[in-house]
Known about the structure:
By secondary structure, this protein is an alpha/beta fold. It is built from 8 helices and 15 strands.
Amino acid sequence: MTNIYKPEIVTIEEIIDETIDTKTFRLKFKDPEVAKNFSFKAGQFGEYTAFGAGESTFCIASSPTRPDYIECSFKTAGKVTGELRELNVGDEMGFRGPYGNTFPLDEWKGKSIVFIAGGIGLAPVRCVIWNVLDTRENFKDVTIVYGARSVGDLCYKRELEEWAARADVKLVTTVDPGGETPDWKGSVGFVPTIVGETAPSADNAVAVICGPPIMIKFTLPVLEKLGFSDEVVYTTLENRMKCGFGKCGRCNIGHVYVCKDGPVFTAAQIKELPAEF
Ligand code: FES
């Protein structure tokens, strides 16, 4: 019988230092057959193994429209990520997945998409952004509001430049007051405020939001005021997972298993979750 906990071996093809404590790995399956048969959709996540240290859960940060590799971004925050951080290009690690539900991109065809992210929360949103931009003809306006505590905390700087240069994307970057540098050309202010100032139209639009809970908490009322109903605001929860597929019971919030029922939820669904969350 196949061991459902057994990871596939992936090789690190590229490492990008996003910030002082956040890295992006580009990974390729070692076994060409596995690579050929692997597929995923925007929003899904994986379990990443540092051999000898354990597994950690991250979203797949690359887009399914770029099937030759998968990418993950992680902040060093414990034993596993500490070990992963020490790996180099050419080293091997493990990957299990994909797991979880997906962002309903097919339902969003013909709509405008507003992406809102804070810090490392851009990782799962980036997957959707590239998916949307690689199939740009399917969508109306694309707005991205991305913020971090400081200029040094902004992830995916190369891609931010790429998006800023596109005529078919409206990108607003911001840093918290005091986080700017003398040459910073973006906005200064907290993400909820900047979303309000950017005022994306809610007409035939959906919003995708991911970031620190406090950012989400204060952005939701702003979106509501702009006319976005809770049913068209999507977010992803990726904390508290271990097995990834409904076995360990570690990720549940009330009767909801984040790994199976999520990690993608609408704001309406999140408001139904027990108050412990
Ligand atoms: S992560 Fe194990 S049940 Fe959800």
